[in-house]
Amino acid sequence: MVNIISEVSKEKVFDLLNHEKRVDNRSFSEYREISIKTNYINKAEGSALVSIGGTTVLAGVKAQVGSPFPNSPDSGIIIINAELLAIASRNFEYGPPNKFAIEISRVVDRTIRESPLIDLDKLCIVEGSKVWKLHVDIDILDFDGNIMDATCLAAVSALLTTKIPTAKFVNDELSIDEDHLSSLPILNKSVLCTVVKVNDQLIVDPVHIEETLMESSLSIGFREDGTLCALQKCGLDVLTAKEVMQCMSMAFNHSRELFSLLENIKP
Amino acid sequence: MKEQFTRNDGRTFNSLRNMKMEVGVLNNADGSAYVECGNNKVLVGVYGPRELYSKKHSKPDGAVLRCKYNMAPFSVKERKRPGPDRRSTEISKLISEAISPSIFLEKYPRSSIDISIEVLEAEGGTRCLGIVGASLALADAEIPMRDLTSACAVGKVDDHIVVDLSEEEDQTGQADMPVAIMPRTGDITFLQMDGNLSVPEFEDALKLAFDACFFINQLQQETLLKKYGGEKNGEYYL
């Protein structure tokens, strides 16, 4: 990803930040408008179209019956994969997921897995041989910064609305009852909030230009009770311990807003 | 309370596994290091700064730090399929970000510094050892640096905050948080966490990680002095 920002634009962003202003007139701790549209794709077991300002991502869940991992024979499987589509930005290219896409997938995966959002043990059909495998694929459709938060929000929203068929073993044969759908066993909801450091100032929900100019960022996954379930620092520069604690309180305040958005999502 | 807690391998909350560090272990690399911690064995080689021919990747205003973290197929219990996977790609990216702030990259435009981290045996905590080894190997390659980055994992086991998680604690524990800092300034260059921590627990864990990193930094300095410094009355000096 080659991002070219002119000196003039850079100086403008930094100048505004020095005056406690941002390019789109938001305050440092203010998010852009968030919209969540669930059940967007009918063919998927669960889906959500999430946009945060100019960033749009689409998550879809497909459920399949598969065999479990040998080290966890009695629990279901969840696989999260994010794709930075080439239509989303001039800086994204076709091809297998690059390190940025992989990092997003893995951080979102940890936030959902460690929460845990879903009781994977309940997704076991026959111990040791048949379990539900949930593929959560997230396509980034339009990029204007902060895809980590958007991706996580989309994945969680999609999983909250996912309905899977009932699977049973009758006479040694697997039967899948497509008429009786059930929601996933949800344990704890979780959200991801990213705080970025630009020009030595901490802001939430960066737009593309702010994200390109950022020094470093900290993504924090929260459970509903306010405890942490995932952390990831990105970026080529450092964070001091004091900045980390500031990030934490900024992100915590915002996580409450995100949870209130998730409250409105009904399976 | 904390002091009385004994971990499964007999360690207290703040004790590290046995560590061994060595620099200059490879003949061809510009710099190299070998780090052991418990049964972890990590070998790091550095090539560069050297010209980066790919125009797409080179930077006109500084060197590009390229880092590859790779696990040997025999390093873990279940054979690991050779080649990069999602985990190693993420770790490679994060390690290069953890090391970058400590190097004067701006001194070497259009060039690359390549770090290869080979995990020969893994027993929990290899990404931190990779960082410790990488900064040693960079120093061994005589690349100018602001500081020797140090790293250590902390976590929560049986509701206790502990340092340097073993493989078992990593898998069964409640939280795992690798941290890397530049000890001179105390700036955090690497921070990850997964598991379950409250904010006060996080603060405790971060403090413990800082202490461990300061200690590991001492070992790193001694390792370099042992190789390149002099010795007087059992003390090493430059």
Plain-language structure description:
The complex is a heterodimer of chains A (267) and B (238). With 267 residues, chain A is of the alpha+beta class. Chain A is elongated and about 70 Å long. The longest helix of chain A is centred in the last third of the chain and has 23 residues, at 241-263. In chain A, a hairpin with a 7-residue loop joins strand 1 and strand 2. Chain A contains 5 helices and 12 strands. The two termini of chain A are 37 Å apart. By secondary structure, chain B is an alpha+beta fold. Chain B has a single domain, classed as Ribosomal Protein S5, domain 2, CATH 3.30.230.70. Chain B has 4 helices and 11 strands. Chain B has helices at residues 86-99, 126-140, 167-172, 199-228, and strands spanning 19-23, 31-37, 40-51, 64-71, 111-121, 150-157, 160-163, 175-182, 187-197, 230-232, 235-237. In chain B, the strands form 3 sheets. A 5-stranded mixed sheet of chain B has the order 1-2-3-5-4. Chain B starts with 18 loop residues before the first strand and ends with a strand. Strand 12 of chain A pairs antiparallel with strand 9 (187-197) of chain B, so a sheet runs across the interface.
